[in-house]
Amino acid sequence: MRVPEEYVSSTTVYNRQLRSDGNGRTRETEADGSSCPGTLIVVSNRQPYRHSYDSDAEEAGSVTGGDVPNAETDDSDAGTDDTDGSSADFPSRTANSRSNTGAVPRPNGAVERETGERSISVDEPTGGLTAGLDPVVQQTDGTWIAWGDGDADFAVADEQHCVAVPPGEEAYTLRRIQLSDEAVDSYYRGFSNRVLWPLCHEFLDLVENRSNDFEWYRTVNERFAEATIEHATEDAVIWLQDYHFALAPRMIRAGVPPSATVAQFWHVPWPSAETFRYCPAGGRLLEGLLGNDLLGFHIDRYVDNFLESVDRYLPGATVDWRTRSVDHDGRTTQVVATPMGVDAQSLADDALASDIDRSTLLESLDIPRGTALGLGVDRLDYTKGIPERLAAIERFFERNPSWRGEFTFVQKATPSRTEIETYERHGELVKSEVERINRRFERDEWQPIVYTEEYLDTETLAAYYRHADVMVVSPLLDGMNLVAQEFVAASVDADSCLVLSDRTGAHDRLGSHALSIDPTDTAQFADQLERALTMPSHERQRRMNTLRARVFDDDIESWMRTQFDWIRRVHGGTNGSGPGSDRDRNSRGRTPPV
């Protein structure tokens, strides 16, 4: 997969050309891209800008015509379509889109013009990791390599599938990978989300290892790796995002200059070694991930699980538990825990800027004034624990009849991966349970649960967060869960309560001042709901002020600084003594988990 050196070196010139203004001068940017030590190449399923035909005659959606990662809300889950179910990275086509009604610039200076009456709009990121990384790539003469899922993505790209972004402020190259329907079905909906997603979340009974899915996963990883190698220079910092690219690091390492750095952040949990033993092609995934110089997870537990999986199942690999590193195939991989944050200040600003006050919000949801408000914001994913949450709400109303008519729970749900039958069945279950509980307890104009799948823009979502009295985040397992942190950041009045699953990565940071729950313990869950609703105001404020301090201190900018600090360490060959090693005592002197 190695490409000619003269082609590789041309990438820097190509990117710098994009950054020239009309007078041929390179635009000034902040010094070094949040301390990234080289030219940054981001490899992600998510693209930062999506081009779509802006026409009523066109179907909304992607070139694949089905579920796409950019259409879903964060992990990351992270983020992600898969990074914890946070707020959507992309607004709807009718909101916050930039319309190109004339010529669309190409990175080589050519333009893509309209065809007939068709115009093209650009959807841009509004939050999460995608929005956070975009300015960093701009500052580093960088490249972003992603799946091109917009129906006009390749109409505006050049013959190498590259386009200059951001539109009108061209600062870096977006390289798009075109995937066939079969590739999307097998690589994305198949091995990524029928095998790795349930396995990493400890749902072994939902793992579906279909024939050919892994081969497509390998093929797509190879295509992303080949594209990355084409753009990699000697000082390249290649940063892969998430579980869609477990094989790619080893492929990339084989084709880039030895001085380039390969790093990856795994936004979902890493399962226990006992669970990982059932992973199809698990050894190949471990070998692929050990092609990284740096591999990041959200919390210590996932680091330990990964190291133990390597220790048990990869012969020839040596785990150093003290430094949390792995020697394999003549290379060292540093493994670190760096919990991801959110753009706390932007969320607080959105909450303050919204013109939706509490009365307006309640009225829009047909909730009587004076009613206490509970809130859940999730993708319709079986990992999010929504049925267990509904069971706890039902138990709460059974035990506390005085709260009937006085408390309403709003469940904001976003359909996700609807072409996978497990997700379709789960969505139907959630809606049927909401209807059943409402029939049981409703009275006059009051219902205990308001269920909505309506799209919420960032300011509206921030208003929901701000006016909620109780926020419930109750996944059965979650890599981090950014929704919990988003709620805290938007709680500018600091007079609300967070009920948080002890099975989220966010619990490690926020659990001491949230109300902690085991999401499968219905009785305890119901008790904590009652406690949240009856907690004195001074205690709510004390807890929330502490939570807000933590979320603002450890925001997404702080997280990215930590990532680049670690990358700088491994970039310079000093694995094993990176940032946080003095602050995080758990990263030194550890022994293997029992």
Automatic annotation (TrEMBL):
* A Pfam entry, by short name: Glyco_transf_20
- One GO BP annotation of this record: trehalose biosynthetic process
Q: Where is the composition biased (Basic and acidic residues)?
A: 18-30, 111-121
Q: Where is the composition biased (Acidic residues)?
A: 72-84
Any one GO molecular-function label of the UniProt entry: hexosyltransferase activity
Q: Where is this region: Disordered?
A: 1-134, 570-594
| Cited CDD domains | GT20_TPS (cd03788)
| Extent of Polar residues compositional bias | 8-17, 93-102
Q: What is this protein called in UniProt?
A: Trehalose-6-phosphate synthase
Q: Which organism is it from?
A: Halosolutus amylolyticus
Organism ancestry: Archaea, Methanobacteriati, Methanobacteriota, Stenosarchaea group, Halobacteria
